[in-house]
Amino acid sequence: MERNHIHEDVPGGVPLKMWTRGVPVEDEAKRQLSNAARLPIVHHHIAAMPDVHFGIGATVGSVIPTLRAIIPAAVGVDIGCGMIACKTTLTAGDLPDNLGPLRSAIERAVPHGRQPGGRDPGAWQKAPGTVNTAWAQLEPEFTELCRDYPMLEKTNHIQHLGTLGTGNHFIEVCLDEAGFVWFMLHSGSRGVGNFIGTMFIELAKQDAMRNNANLPDRDLAYFEEGSRYFGDYVRAVGWAQKFAAINREVMMKRVIETAKTVIRKNFQSHVEAVNCHHNYVQKEHHYGEDVYVTRKGAVSAKAGQLGIIPGSMGARSYIVRGKGNPESFESCSHGAGRVMSRGEARRRFTLADHRAATEGVECRKDKDVIDETPAAYKDIDAVMAAQRDLVDVVHTLKQVVCVKG
Predict the structure, then answer these.
(1) From 19's CA, which of 27, 298, 329, 374 has a CA 20 to 30 Å away?
(2) Catalytic residue among 44, 334, 354, 395
(3) Which residues of the chain have pLDDT under 50?
(4) Residue 278 annotated to the active site
């Protein structure tokens, strides 16, 4: 198999293998990776994807295998965040000339965004029937979790099921290389997942302080198997990942139903469908050991497995098939990856820059989305070139409608 990664030794730790040729990596991100590599629980090496960048707690774009332990901050607070995409039988010629009504209809059908100082429009006031039906799959286990952690009852759980969120979460209508229409969206476990992640990250830090753990970074506090909170965290994070996957499926159904009210031609959907996490942890076998693999901003890319690598608001996205590269722990990037902070993007780019970058896309073009402008992200073509030994491209998608949270 072609080798396309950079190998870096970490004094006192496991090596780093980085698929970053031709893409920038900040020193802060390298420092975070090196800190994680020094933890005694990390197995064999850490893999860094080409979209790697500095994150809260742990690096975004990292794959960290751990022995009999999990680092909650490496999973993060948007537990189960990921992508869903489905191909339809529609083609470009079936779309209306004016895509504004389609975008508006999707915005009405799926709560998104937030309103400073006011009611959060990104939550249901009264959940529709499709949401209640989906919640029935999640409620029994949630009730059990609430017995041990009653504060979970106060979170937005069913209120956020079937809703998009904010920041880099989005819904898109795309065209593939053959002109077929795809629907694609990006979201996770919303408020309840954030609460679970935040709570257990804090509990791990408290445990580390009590045990005088020698950590290179407090954010890398971890639970070991058999410790007080380990089993609870595994249960809670597994439930949040299930919530995230169902959340995306509910939204996709609503997007398709809504599109059918605007696009007059009958069509079929889910012709090809992919629903994948890119912020999660699960047990896998690598390099002779059963380990917990934490992918924070990374997608599973087992041999033959389909995944989604989105670009930015004005860039291409990709449906990919994994090559099962063992050195990346069978993983690939989760997107283009930020090249600068949100604050830096707002300082550096103007509305004119953003409008030019998103020309031809029916999307928001106001000052509140400048932090999501394409130039705030790495070049998706360079990111894809850097991981050519991890995935093959199956479809290339270009958005024509983009709804931002």
Answers:
(1) 374
(2) 334
(3) 1
(4) no
